[in-house]
Design a protein that fits this description.
The chain has 410 residues and is mainly β. It has one domain: Porin, CATH 2.40.160. Helix content is 5%, strand content 62%. A hairpin with a 2-residue loop joins strand 3 and strand 4.
Length: 410
């Protein structure tokens, strides 16, 4: 049984796919583009990584940073909306989330024959505040009210080092600390046509601490061509969670007696399993003003009895950078964000949603006296299937997300 469902009471119109509501985006891995230059190029950065953002994508690339490089995404605003068709009373159900954050900070400097640095990244974050009312839901339920508050953020921070093995080969390592904090509160109220009603409350809190090493290599076999690869995985070393379910119903014996009479908080320490991530990339430099790059990223399948199994995913990204002149550069890219869930089958209940996402990105940079300011945006969209109710019905689902960021580099 999954962790989330252990503390979730199932009622007539409670959303059964509760792990969907209780995580940032558990069903995708490429949820937020990191940094300024890389974000504009759709994340196709494994074979470039020659600025502070390289500590996140491929630490071997920071060997080619100049004397010092400081980069900070000063403001990054992310918004996502999901729409599920024919959910309650054959009407759509929408979820909206947003977050305003500094999604990357990093500094790199030389130390002898090495380059060392420190970085902070936010690869996933969500903030949901939702209040919805449904009238004339069914023949027995006249009104359904839901209030949801959801906070879920993942942070990576730690040092990096890169070294030269030969004139065309470098290696690097980032040792990130992994932190994830989740808090969710859900209130639901049913008013029935016979005058009875039901109230339920669900509370979930989780804190994870672990490590995420990133090993990278960069190779330039011929002039104007760069190849890169990175390997990383998150290991949770400690997890502390709490869950509580409460139910009250004006009709006796409708609610489970345990959660009705003794809604105590239950603690757990189960550790989530994260996938092994492998990325390879190539970058071509036709001239001093143009870069063309591409990445392929594979996240391995995960077997996790507590938080649910995940299928392997294969994502791709392409990007380009062009200098209009010495003061202006434009970047654009495209990327995928494939779902790590199985194909939904009609007639089977409680299957996690499956929506494959496709995105594009664009950014513009201005360079002045050794510093730069970048303004960029990205947008992703996808269609798929979901089972958000506690039955075998399948709903069409769409997702639309966009990110806007303002960053500076020195």
């Amino acid at each position: 049984m999954y962790i989330f469902s252990r503390y979730l009471p199932i009622f007539s119109f409670v959303f059964a796919s509760f792990s969907t509501l209780s995580v940032a985006d558990e069903y995708h891995y490429n949820n937020m583009l990191i940094g300024d230059r890389a974000s504009g190029m759709g994340g196709a950065y494994t074979a470039i990584s020659d600025d502070a953002t390289g500590m996140f994508y491929n630490p071997a690339g920071i060997l080619y940073v100049g004397e010092r490089n400081f980069s900070a995404s000063v403001n990054a605003y992310y918004s996502q909306s999901k729409k599920y068709e024919n959910v309650i009373g054959n009407r759509p159900f929408e979820r909206n989330s947003s977050a305003l954050l500094a999604n990357f900070f990093g500094i790199v400097k030389p130390m002898g024959n090495f380059k060392v640095g420190f970085s902070y990244a936010v690869p996933d974050a969500v903030s949901e505040d939702q209040n919805q009312n449904f009238s004339n839901v069914s023949g027995s339920v006249s009104r359904f009210t839901m209030n949801l508050n959801n906070r879920d953020s993942t942070y990576n921070f730690g040092p990096s080092i890169a070294a030269e093995l030969s004139s065309d080969l470098s290696v690097g390592l980032s040792l990130y600390i992994h932190k994830r904090d989740v808090q969710l509160i859900l209130n639901q109220f049913q008013e029935r046509t016979d005058g009875s009603n039901q109230w339920s409350n669900y509370y979930f809190k989780l804190s994870e601490t672990g490590t995420r090493p990133v090993l990278g290599v960069m190779w330039s076999p011929v002039d104007k061509l760069s190849l890169g690869a990175s390997l990383s995985q998150t290991w949770v070393l400690a997890a502390n969670g709490q869950g509580q379910s409460t139910c009250w119903d004006s009709i006796a014996a409708v609610c489970n007696a345990t959660i009705l009479q003794a809604p105590s908080i239950t603690s757990f320490t189960a550790k989530r399993k994260y996938p092994l991530r492998m990325a390879v990339g190539a970058a071509y430099f036709p001239d001093s003003n143009l870069i063309l790059s591409g990445d392929v990223t594979y996240n391995a399948a995960v077997t996790d009895a507590n938080y649910g199994n995940k299928e392997g995913t294969l994502n791709m990204a392409i990007g380009t950078e062009y200098y209009l002149n010495k003061n202006w550069a434009v970047r654009t890219g495209g990327y995928t964000n494939m779902a790590n869930t199985p194909v939904i089958q009609a007639g089977v209940t409680s299957i996690e949603e499956r929506i494959n996402l496709y995105g594009v990105s664009l950014s513009v940079s201005n360079f002045t006296n050794g510093s730069s300011i970048t303004l960029g945006t990205s947008i992703n969209y996808g269609k798929g299937k979901s089972q958000i109710l506690n039955n075998t019905s399948v709903q069409d689902a769409t997702t639309l997300g966009w990110l806007m960021f303002l960053s500076s580099s020195y």
